[in-house]
Structures are given as structure tokens and as C-alpha cells.
Amino acid sequence: MFEKFFKLSEHGTTVKTEILAGITTFLTMGYILIVNPIILSKTGMPFGALITATALSSAIATLVMALYANMPFGLAPGMGLNAFFAFTVVLGMGYSWEFALTAVFLEGVIFLILTFLNVREAIVNSIPINLKYAISAGIGLFIAFIGLQGASIVVDNPAVLLGLGDMLSVNPLICVFGVLVIGVLHHKKVKGALMIGILSSTVLALILGAAKFNGIFSAPASLAPIFFKLDFSNVFSLDMATVLFTFLFVDMFDTVGTLVGVASKANMLDSDGKLPGVKKALFADAVGTTVGALLGTCTVTTYVESAAGVEEGGRTGLTALVISGLFLLSLFISPLITMVPGAATAPVLIVVGLFMLTPILKVDFADFTEGLPAFLAMIIMPLTYSISEGIAFGIISYTALKLCSGRAKEVSVVTYIVALIFIGKFFM
Question: Within 10 A of 176 (CB to CB), how many other CB atoms are there?
């Protein structure tokens, strides 16, 4: 049944590999089950209901990715987007969380329309091939940076922004242990090296007191306090337009960057540098955002941690189906899932960051009009903590260099339009 539906042999994978990949991706992105409710609850939304909304919206969106797009990507409420929702729209601008949910709902509807009209697909295809390779490498640096932060190896330093943490404290030690375990197992070609790394690091965290066992089962909280709580009273205001544009812009290019970057690493791009079936993947993202708003959570987007599952060999929607199933299961075993500390998943992010760098070898650095934009896209992502900002610098510099070098015809019309949109955003 799985072979016929997901075409496993055609994609060079097996049921066992896909299941392992799905579990690995879920464990690396499972932190969202607790982090998203923590952030959104600052607005006054009930914490328990947010856990339920986070799990359900992630499960539904990833299920669409699995059954409709047949791609190995996990989706969940987006980090950064949830912070904008809580701290800017609600706490900063003074609007209700119902107003913010309405903006997310409208974003999802607009994305459904843009996906149907092939606008988002055209944007994905407009990214030059060398930039697509660089986006993969940039995402690699970005998620490794997230892992280093999560393990307190990289910490705040007011003098120079960043600094080295206390390497003899618990979290860095757990992370180093996990990296060593994964490195050795991967060198010996042991299947499931990433998942074993997470589990062994979690055990060490329990021993060292960095994680606490709080049981296994729990009943999901009711969605009633946040379900379908939309407020259309300010839908035509300037503030709604500003909030809506920000949600649209960040989610659009974060999703595009993740799909392109992870697909590049998985060799899923065709000979023209396009991702077959990308429209279906973008549809899953749009459905997730729309449904998520109705359930009571922020923008649902494709997760960069999907790279962990791809590295384990995940190539089809069966990987996403496993992720979706685990999100549903987490409704009843949230104490067990949330027990895994950031220091235990950090090793996977660091190692996968290395794996994501390999497409950079395909970039034509001999051509400066290709190499410099690729470098800027790659380096800006971790430094600004944003995939979309990295794409912006890459697209703008690519377009400008081609124009100034007398090679304007090499740039597509859509790429010019995207570059102008990015430039316009800087003036907002």
C-alpha cells in the first residue's frame, strides 16, 4: 500500500527509512509544542488550549504535505512569526489576539489564492540555481547556529553581540556528547544515528538533572477558548494591512527558502533547478495557516528541521505522514515529548547544518555575479536569524550585479519583480 501510494522505490527509499526519518524530524521540531504556547500565552491566550492548537494544526498541515504533495517536510506554527504575533501585534500595537488571528486567517486565504494562481510557484522558480544552492548552505549555517544557541554554546555578549558560553556547564556538555555520538555512528553508517543521538543525549540530560520526567500520558486541553475566535472589526484598517503584509512576506520567503534549501540537499531539484510538485507543497502550507488560525494559533509554515529527516533518507510523503501521526499522538503524551531538552536536539541541528552545506560546492564562484549573491544569501541568514532576509540580499545583489555588468537579459522578469518587492520592504 505504501509503495503504491508514495512510490517509495521510485524515490530510492523504504518504509523503514521513511518511518525513521519521520521520527527524527518530529523529535527535532517537537520543541514547538511547548515553545509556541509559551510565546502566544503572553497575549492572554490559555496555555493548554494552545498546546492542543499547535499539535492539531501541525498534524493537519503535515498530513496535507504527506497525502497531497508526497514530500518529506514537516509543518508547524512558525518561530519568529509567533513572536511577531505576540510581542508586536498584541503587546506592542495593542490589538487583541483575536485581531492577530484574523490577520493570520486572511494570510492563509491569500496564500491559497496565490498558490492556485501559480504566483508562489513562479517565485520559487525565479530563484537562480546558484542562489538555490546557497540557500541550502545558508539554512545549514542557520540551523547549526540555532543548535549552538539552544545548547548555550553560543550566548549573548553585549560587547560583540555573541560569545562563547561556559563549556563546562551542563547544556554544552550534553550537546558535545550528542555530537560525538552522532559523529561516530554516522561514520560507521549506523541507521538512525540522528535519532539515537537525541535519545542518548536526553538520557544524559535526565542523569545530569537538565531534564525531568513528568510522566507519559495526559488528556488534551479543550480548544473552546480560542477556537474560531476571529475579529473582523478592524479588517480594513491600515494596521491590519501592515500586519498582514508582514505575515505574508516573512512566511512566503521562509517557506520558499526552506523548500528550496532542503530539496536541494535531497537532490529533489530537476535539471532546470526547479522543484517538481512545489505547488502542492505550497498548498499544504496555505491550508495549514488557514486552519491554524481557525484552531487558534499563528502562521503554520514548513520547518527547516525537516532537513534532519531528509538526512536520514526521507524522500516521500510517508516521512510527513509519520510526523503528522506523531503530532496527533503528542496530544496524549505531551509530558513525554516535552521532556526532551533543547540541548538534546541541538547536536542534530549542528550535524545537519554540516550536511546542508554540501550544495555550496555546486555554486559557480568563478563568476562573481553568481558567487557574491550566493555568499550574501548564505551568510545573512544566520546573522539576521532570518531565511527571508538572506534571500532578499541574494536576490537584490544578483539583480543589481547582472544589471551593472551588462547581463540584464540573464535575469527573469519575475526575479526583477521579486527584487523590487524586497527593496520596497526596506522602506516600510
Answer: 18
Q: How far apart are CA 427 and CA 296, in angstroms?
A: 32
Look at residue 157 and give its three-state secondary structure: strand
Q: Are the C-beta atoms of residues 234 and 373 closer than 8 Å to each other? A: no
Residue 422 identity: F
What is the 3 state secondary structure string of 105-134?
HHHHHHHHHHHHCCHHHHHHHHCCHHHHHH
Residue type, 344: A
* Residue 213 to residue 36: CA distance in whole angstroms: 21
Q: Which residues have a Cβ under 8 Å from the Cβ of 197 and sit 6 or more positions away?
A: 178, 179, 181, 182, 185, 347, 348, 351
Quick: pLDDT tens for 99-138: 999 999 999 999 999 999 999 889 888 889 999 999 989 9
The residue with cell 560587547 is 159
CB atoms within 10 A of CB 256: 26
- C-beta atoms surrounding 207 within 10 Å: 10
DSSP conformation class of 43: G
C-alpha cell at 281: 507543497
Name the phi and psi angles at 363, rounded to 5: -70, 135
Looking at residue 273, its amino acid is G
Contact of 82 with 36, CB cutoff 8 Å: yes
Contact 316, 18 (CB under 8 A): yes
Instruction: Say which residues have a Cβ less than 8 Å from residue 203's Cβ, sequence separation at least 6.
Output: none
Q: What is the pLDDT of residues 362-404, one digit of tens each?
A: 899 999 999 999 999 999 999 988 888 899 999 999 999 999 9
Annotate 322-386 with DSSP letters as a single string.
Answer: HHHHHHHHHTT-HHHHTTS-HHHHHHHHHHHHHHHTGGGGGS-TTSHHHHHHHHHHHHHHHHHT-
Alpha carbon distance, N-terminus to C-terminus of the chain: 51
Q: Tell me the three cell numbers of residue 394.
A: 541574494
Give this prediction's pTM. Answer: 0.83
Element (H, E) at 2: helix 2-6
CA distance 124 to 135: 12
pLDDT digits (tens, 9 = 90+) for 233-289: 888 888 888 889 888 888 888 888 888 888 887 888 887 778 888 999 999 999 999
Assess contact for 382 and 357: CB atoms under 8 A. no
The residue type of 188 is: K
Q: Which of helix, strand or coil describes residue 89?
A: helix
Residue-by-residue DSSP string for 304-320: TTHHHHHHTT--SHHHH
